[in-house]
Design brief:
Number of strands: 3
Mean pLDDT: 92
Low-confidence stretches: none
Shape: elongated
Distance between the termini: 15 Å
Largest sheet: 3 strands, antiparallel
Radius of gyration: 15 Å
Oligomer: single chain
Order of helices and strands: HHEEE
């Protein structure tokens, strides 16, 4: 599998799983209508999810609240 494909797949998996965690957590703690619930979940997930990227054939992960990416 190409590194670019692996990075894209990992981004989707981590974003999706963290999104479901936030959606269920916020929905349980604060019952609200569907659209604000989805908006808040996407906002929080975009902030705290790790980002995977490829630079010069090497796979890196950018963790939230850290400046430098970590090579995998």
């Amino acid at each position: 599998m190409k590194k670019e494909t692996l990075a894209l797949l990992l981004n989707f998996i981590f974003f999706g799983s963290i999104f479901l965690f936030f959606k269920n957590g916020i929905g349980t703690l604060m019952p609200m209508s569907y659209v604000p619930l989805i908006f808040l979940s996407v906002l929080f997930t975009g902030i705290v999810s790790p980002k995977f990227l490829v630079n010069k054939g090497k796979l890196f992960v950018k963790l939230p609240f850290r400046k430098k990416p970590i090579q995998l």
